[in-house]
């Protein structure tokens, strides 16, 4: 029981690390980015290639995965995404689904369509007993890393100049521009960092999330649930939403494997219908 | 007042290209016997894309889960044929009514919220339908699919069961009838009120259009159309499986409509023809990487054509060339 709870938290933490970049994209630029999972997948494959083919230690591969996804995110943002900011949501959806298809096919072409596993170091395998709770070492690592990321994110958002610029831009873009904040620049950096975090999450969670070319489409709905249920006005909203989703999903798969997906989607629809702005939002409309 | 009425009537009248198109379609029954299987597929996807066009092109509702109604119609048609009566037209009507009812109920969920919420709710509805079809395997056959569906002659006289050409004629006639009805709908005051809502919901409601009722109505009609399209596919390939309802199908139909262009009813036909023919050619060369080219096409179309279809790219090039000429 508590083990499921623990696994659920690990899963939810992962979802949060991957999806928090998406929350910013959506909240700041009102941009529907269905391709966010593609960056997570790229990070995961980056770590996979490094660890399995070149023998890079697992821990060293994580920052590389972050940088890799962030660089690709930055380039994609400056060359492609920038054309779509003032377009309709339909065009943004088409564009990002197109990107997903292309990335999936490319990964399939270069690395094959089978599910891939990163060779985890021996000290991360297995579980130990902690006051009667079975704790997987790998999942414990995920929770620790994600908690660290969450704290760093909160500190950056709350206590740095960049963080206050970002919050200002999310709250009211026009006024922020009027105050001389270079919103485009803030956004490019944030977008790249969000992609990087997605890549890091993809690398970290490759074992849980199953790394394969159709990863972005499979998890698209989960990331969207996190941001739409959590709202985009803070990072605590998406965080709570991801933890709830993680625990709900793991528990659902464990106790009622046949109806797990069904329950998650139904709850999502109900929440969206009752609270279109998200469960934890302050009720501002964008 | 008279002028306005005359202008509306002009818009409702048939364009000469439409006559050409339907004559060509009728001629294809006799001239292209080897391609009838492909043409049947095109006609069914056309009808499905047409139903999405009613939503997207006229009412501006972005749906990522339109396959829910397609699949529901297909399952209803198959189950009705197995358990009650195997006459195809009756099956179409039953499937259309059932999918329409599902659309009517689910439209209440889609009304609220912004584009993103709608997108996710439609996607969620399709996922829930998929899960239901998957889990109720005693009824739907689950992952194995539903087989053994009887297909009697149409109206008792016109056999279509595994007869490619007759199936094509049947599907084409259904497409024609439903397109004519759709044309009436979109050129009626109701259709104009939909476009008003798409243009600006706030203004539309302030000139007295009941936005929600209109959106519910068009969602129901579109769902019914999708259900009929699903039933047609079920009857012409007598297996109904989970692929009828999966995300790929919702994405494909959106893509076809976008390739052909939204908001003029024929976009879905043009788009599905281009899509399926391209799939046949590119898919033959590199079946695995067809997905890459689809993605590429989506990105290019989203960049340059927006939602007016591939032809608008040519139009824009021509317009740009003309401008250059006028300058020099």
Would you mind describing this structure in some detail?
The complex is a heterodimer of chains A (286) and B (328). Chain A has helices at 2-29, 36-54, 58-79, 89-111, 137-159, 161-171, 173-178, 183-204, 206-209, 215-230, 236-255, 260-274; strands at residues 127-130, 133-136. By secondary structure, chain A is mainly α. Chain A has one domain (2-216). In chain A, β1 (127-130) and β2 (133-136) form a beta hairpin. In chain A, α1 (2-29) packs antiparallel against α8, α1 (2-29) packs across α11 (236-255) and α2 packs across α10 (215-230). The longest helix of chain A is centred in the first third of the chain and has 28 residues, at 2-29. With 328 residues, chain B is mainly α. Chain B has one domain (10-327). Chain B has helices at residues 2-12, 16-31, 36-59, 67-83, 88-110, 115-135, 137-140, 164-186, 189-199, 201-206, 211-236, 247-260, 267-285, 290-305, 310-327. The model of chain B has no long low-confidence stretch (mean pLDDT 85).
N-to-C order of helices and strands of chain A: HHHHEEHHHHHHHH
How would a crystallographer describe the biggest sheet of chain A? 2 strands, antiparallel
Please work out how many helical segments of chain A DSSP would assign.
Answer: 12
- Which range best describes the helical content of chain B: under 10%, 10-25%, 25-40%, 40-55%, 55-70% or over 70%? over 70%
Instruction: Provide the number of structural domains of chain B.
Output: 1
Strand tally of chain A: 2
Give the overall pLDDT of chain B as a whole number: 85
Spans of chain B with pLDDT under 50 lasting ≥5 residues?
none
């Amino acid at each position: 029981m508590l083990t499921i709870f623990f696994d659920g938290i690990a899963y939810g933490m992962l979802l949060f690390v991957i999806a928090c970049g998406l929350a910013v994209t959506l909240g700041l630029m009102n941009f529907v980015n269905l391709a966010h999972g593609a960056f997570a997948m790229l990070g995961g494959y980056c770590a996979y290639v490094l660890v399995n083919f070149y023998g890079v230690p697992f821990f060293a591969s994580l920052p590389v995965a972050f940088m890799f996804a962030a660089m690709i995110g930055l380039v994609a943002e400056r060359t492609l995404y920038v054309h779509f900011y003032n377009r309709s949501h339909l065009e943004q959806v088409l564009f990002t689904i197109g990107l997903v298809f292309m990335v999936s096919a490319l990964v399939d072409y270069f690395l094959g369509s089978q599910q891939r596993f990163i060779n985890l170091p021996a000290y991360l395998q297995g579980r130990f007993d902690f006051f009667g709770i079975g704790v997987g070492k790998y999942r414990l690592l995920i929770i620790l890393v994600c908690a660290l990321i969450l704290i760093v994110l909160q500190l950056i958002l709350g206590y740095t100049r960049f963080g206050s610029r970002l919050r200002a831009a999310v709250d009211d873009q026009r006024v922020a521009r009027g105050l001389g904040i270079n919103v485009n620049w803030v956004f490019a950096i944030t977008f790249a960092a969000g992609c990087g975090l997605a890549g890091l999450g993809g690398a970290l969670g490759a074992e849980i999330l199953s790394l394969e070319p159709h990863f972005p489409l499979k998890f698209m709905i989960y990331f969207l649930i996190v941001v739409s249920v959590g709202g985009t006005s803070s990072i605590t909203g998406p965080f709570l939403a991801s933890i709830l989703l993680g625990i709900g999903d793991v528990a659902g798969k464990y106790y009622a494997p046949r109806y797990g997906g069904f329950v998650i989607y139904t709850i999502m629809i109900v929440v969206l219908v009752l609270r279109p702005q998200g469960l934890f939002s302050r009720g501002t409309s964008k | 007042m008279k002028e306005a009425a005359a202008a509306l009537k002009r818009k409702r009248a048939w364009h000469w290209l439409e006559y050409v198109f339907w004559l060509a379609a009728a001629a294809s029954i006799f001239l292209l016997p080897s391609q009838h299987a492909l043409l049947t597929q095109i006609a069914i996807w056309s009808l499905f894309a047409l139903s999405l066009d009613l939503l997207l092109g006229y009412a501006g509702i972005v749906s990522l889960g339109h396959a829910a109604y397609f699949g529901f119609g297909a399952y209803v048609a198959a189950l009705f044929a197995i358990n009650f009566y195997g006459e195809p037209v009756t099956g179409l009507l039953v499937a259309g009514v059932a999918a329409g009812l599902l659309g009517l109920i689910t439209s209440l969920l889609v009304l609220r919220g912004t584009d993103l919420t709608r997108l996710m709710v439609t996607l969620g509805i399709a996922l829930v339908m998929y899960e239901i079809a998957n889990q109720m395997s005693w009824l739907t056959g689950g992952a194995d699919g539903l087989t053994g569906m009887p297909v009697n002659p149409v109206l008792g006289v016109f056999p279509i069961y595994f007869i490619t050409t007759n199936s094509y004629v049947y599907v084409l006639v259904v497409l024609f009838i439903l397109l004519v009805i759709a044309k009436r709908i979109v050129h009626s005051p109701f259709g104009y009120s939909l476009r008003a809502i798409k243009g600006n919901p706030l203004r539309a409601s302030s000139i007295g259009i009941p936005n929600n009722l209109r959106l519910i109505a068009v969602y129901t009609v579109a769902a019914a159309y999708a259900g009929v399209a699903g039933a047609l596919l079920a009857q012409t390939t007598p297996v109904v499986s989970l692929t009828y309802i999966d995300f790929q199908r919702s994405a494909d139909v959106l893509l076809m409509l976008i390739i052909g262009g939204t908001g003029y009813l024929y976009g879905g036909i043009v788009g599905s023809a281009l899509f399926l023919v391209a799939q046949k050619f590119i898919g033959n060369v590199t079946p695995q990487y067809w997905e890459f080219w689809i993605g590429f096409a989506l990105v290019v179309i989203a960049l340059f054509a927006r939602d007016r279809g591939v032809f608008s790219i040519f139009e824009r090039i021509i317009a740009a060339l003309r401008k250059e000429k006028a300058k020099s």
